[in-house]
Design a protein that fits this description.
This is 3-oxoacyl-ACP synthase. The chain is built from 11 helices and 10 strands. By secondary structure, the protein is α/β, with parallel strands linked by helices.
Length: about 350
């Protein structure tokens, strides 16, 4: 079986990650319970006439994909695979609002056309004139990982040589209001919002788009080797710890081989128990990293976590603002990522320095 390498990355997030090396200008926002993306210069990537008709999720996806492809040397693609939890929710809201405001009459189709979950993948393919395999996964908190698993399987089996895959989600006003009512988002009066040691339910929500170019050939631009991906729907806290060990051992590693673990702490006192059980047990003496205080929580936030882990393996450093404990290693060769979304959709990703 062939190996899988991350040869290019592009990230649009609540931090200026599109024009920095690695979080050197990142800022921790403890006053907002919903984080918006730092918008890149869209006009540098998308013609203004086309950009005006696109939702922000589509534009962010196109720019993130373009940045990843540029880093990888603009290779020809054998597949475009996207993952999204909510899709282009902003255009969905516009269409539904139009139905109500116009008594179901005189509706323009633009918002409906742009509201489908596979709009991002389709627009990327149109821009590249790519007629290869194009698929979108909508699997809740495992949406991005499902696409990552699909792409890696195609590469290891030899069905593809180059795959573009990523995760995209956007926030929209009405949906955010619904999430607040449902208790998914922290209350404004609970600020400052601090993830580690949080004592309240709900999370600081966010949005973003992160893309990766996966290839079966190691290049000078390679960030890391993608060793394995595993996803599970439902696990108890104790089962999650057991699954982590089983995942590591299945790939011929031991816990002591892991140089750092990236955990998806969201600040929800109920669901962060999954991470606490692992961090205080298996990985107590191993460097622990967290990231959702920078990106916010959303269905495909784990793509931001993977972007950060790959950066660590290439640069061999990370800022103090992402450290969840004090241990450090002289060298980082193997990193494990664990994420779950509100107690479901658990994912495990193993990266290795290349």
């Amino acid at each position: 079986m062939k190996k899988v390498y991350i040869n290019g990355m592009g990230c649009i997030s609540a931090q200026p990650t599109f024009d920095s090396v690695f979080l050197e200008t990142a800022v921790v926002n403890t006053t907002d319970n919903v984080l918006s993306v730092v918008a890149p210069p869209y006009k540098d990537f998308i013609p203004p006439a086309a950009s005006r008709r696109m939702g922000k999720g589509v534009k962010n996806g196109i720019v993130a994909a373009a940045l990843a492809l540029k880093e990888a040397g603009d290779p020809a693609l054998d597949a475009i695979i996207t993952g999204t939890g909510m899709g282009c929710i902003e255009d969905s809201e516009k269409f539904l609002r139009g139905i109500l405001d116009n008594q179901e009459e005189f509706l323009t189709p633009t918002s409906f056309i742009q509201s489908t979950h596979n709009t991002v993948g389709g627009q990327i393919a149109l821009g590249l004139q790519c007629k290869a395999y194009n698929f979108t996964y909508v699997n809740g908190g495992n949406s991005f990982e499902s696409g990552l698993l699909d792409g890696s399987m195609q590469l290891t089996s030899g069905e593809a040589n180059t795959v573009l895959t990523g995760g995209i989600d956007e926030s929209a006003a009405f949906t955010i209001d619904f999430f607040k009512v449902a208790g998914l988002i922290k209350k404004a009066e609970e600020q400052p919002f601090v993830l580690l040691g949080a004592t309240t339910t709900g999370s600081v929500f966010g949005e973003g788009a992160t893309f990766f170019v996966l290839e079966n050939e190691k290049k000078t631009s390679s960030y890391a080797e993608l060793v394995a991906v595993n996803i599970c729907n439902n696990l108890s806290v104790s089962e999650a710890a057991q699954e982590v060990v089983a995942f590591i051992q299945k790939n011929n590693y031991t816990v002591s081989d892991i140089d750092a673990v990236v955990l998806g702490y969201s600040g929800d006192v109920v669901f962060d128990e999954y991470y606490k059980a692992i961090s205080s047990g298996l990985f107590k003496e191993i460097p622990q990293i967290y990231y959702k205080h920078l990106s916010g929580e959303y269905h495909t936030a784990s793509a931001f976590g993977l972007w950060m882990a790959a950066k660590i393996l290439k640069t061999q450093e990370f800022p103090e603002m992402v450290c969840a404990n004090t241990p450090r290693r002289k060298q980082y060769k193997t990193i494990l990522l664990y994420n779950q979304f509100r107690g479901e959709d658990h994912s495990f990703i193993l990266l290795r320095q290349c």
